[in-house]
Amino acid sequence: MLERKIKMGKEMKGHVLLLPFPAQGHFSPMLQFAKRLASKGLKATIAMTISVTKSSYAEAGGVQVEIISENGYTREGVHGSFKDVGSRVLLSIIEKNRYSSDAVTCIVYDSICPWALEVAKENGLFGASFFSQSCSVNYIFYQVSRGIIGLPVEETVSSIPGLPPLEISELPTFVSDLEVYKVALDLFLGQFSNLDKADSVVFNTFDKLESKVVKHMRKLWNVLTIGPAIPSMYLDKRMEGDKDYGLNLFEPSEDPYIKWLNARETGSVIYLSFGSIAVYTNEQMDEVANALRQSNKYFLWVVREEEMIKLPKNFIEETSDKGLVVTWCSQIEVLSHSSIGCFITHCGWNSILEALSLGVPMVTMPNFADQTTNAKFVADIWGAGIWPTADHKRIIKRDKLEASIRNVMEVDIADTIKKNISNFREMTRDAMEIGGSSFLNIENFVKSLQVVRK
Ligand SMILES: O=c1ccn([C@@H]2O[C@H](COP(=O)(O)OP(=O)(O)O[C@H]3O[C@H](CO)[C@@H](O)[C@H](O)[C@H]3O)[C@@H](O)[C@H]2O)c(=O)[nH]1
Description:
This protein is α/β, with parallel strands linked by helices. The chain folds into two domains: about 1-245 and about 435-454, Rossmann fold; about 255-430, Glycogen Phosphorylase B (Rossmann fold, 3-Layer(aba) Sandwich), CATH 3.40.50.2000. Helices cover about 40% and strands about 15% of the residues. It is built from 17 helices and 13 strands. It has helices at about 25-40, 80-95, 115-120, 135-145, 175, 180-190, 210-220, 235, 255-260, 280-295, 315-320, 330-335, 350-360, 370-380, 400-410, 415-430, 435-450, and strands at about 15-20, 45-50, 65-70, 105-110, 125-130, 200-205, 225, 270-275, 300, 325, 340-345, 360-365, 385. It has a seven-stranded parallel β-sheet, sandwiched between helices. Helix 15 (about 400-410) packs across helix 16. It is globular, with a radius of gyration of 22 Å. The N and C termini lie close together (about 10 Å). Keywords: Glycosyltransferase, Transferase.
């Protein structure tokens, strides 16, 4: 191990090198964290693949961007090529700055790339693992990784400290469906292979949201909850320039879908998005389309280009007086729009945090990965939405979906959900406010980097 002493003058708080896993849901929260660090006087460099690079991200919010070549990463090669290329890129950035005033002092890496911690430690740097999914989900993975929960799981799991009893269908699918998700399970169990060596373990969540499980995890690692990692503008309407709140580049959008929303009444529109990866069957997409028709409500539906083919024939034309289908939108801007009354979501963790932060009730349609467990929390633990029952083929039928939409938007149950969700909205603000739990954890993270290290 290379021994080196990094001395930082008052003006230099350190240089954090961040390595997100190349997928939208992993990259976005880490970029927000990077912006918060940059706003606190740290130099922040994010190393990312071209596949998640959009022009709007470049140099965003004072964060320097280093590109990892696309050739170095294929989804199939997560274990191989991304590790090799990623390690080389990290090293080259460390070397480039080694003897300058911008010497890298810390690596923040996506928790599913534990090899990056080895790079940090071999170079005498502070290493922080960044988890882009909830504490609850990761505590389940931890229990599996240590053999505390044996696989295959054959009955309801009631023994995890800090978590409610979870039926098999409520566990992450990587744990419940071993045949399909073997590679993914290994990746997520691998998060804990060297975690004991990490200086900080950072989660995109906030204390009050997962208080019980966070308490248990703090017995194991230096857990810092720093979320929700969304632009500050959407949390508290504070504008750019307030340094303590991180940077945001908010400008009211002129996009056609925002203009379309502007013409709709408060709480009248259903927003649907299934994130950047989830793939539903043709049958499920058909059921969703028909639920929308039956509900006769306004809707804005994000359908990724490659999924468009699954929409019923002529659906877009036939519903054009009620709905708008787009291939991508600024979700956070949409969720913060007053016209949105319901979010039909695949339950990606970022989508959940965004909906809670912006106070939008959810109808959950989990697809895979952590989404099933997230749906359980939304519906049964937080009371922030409804998880419609699926049939024996795991399809949520149109009638059930329509009923859930009405329950969330119209009838009595909606009042309870709206009250709960509005409490969460307050809680997210409290967490990120000066003195709030996430605010203080970010401060502590920054302070810990200023300790002179040998
Ligand atoms: O039209 C869209 C659709 C999505 N988003 C944004 O893209 C992100 C999507 O993230 P998430 O909701 O977490 O979904 P995925 O992209 O599916 O995320 C993957 O990564 C997450 C974090 O690890 C996991 O929780 C998910 O299960 C996994 O599918 C969010 O910030 C959305 O606001 C947009 O801006 N516009």
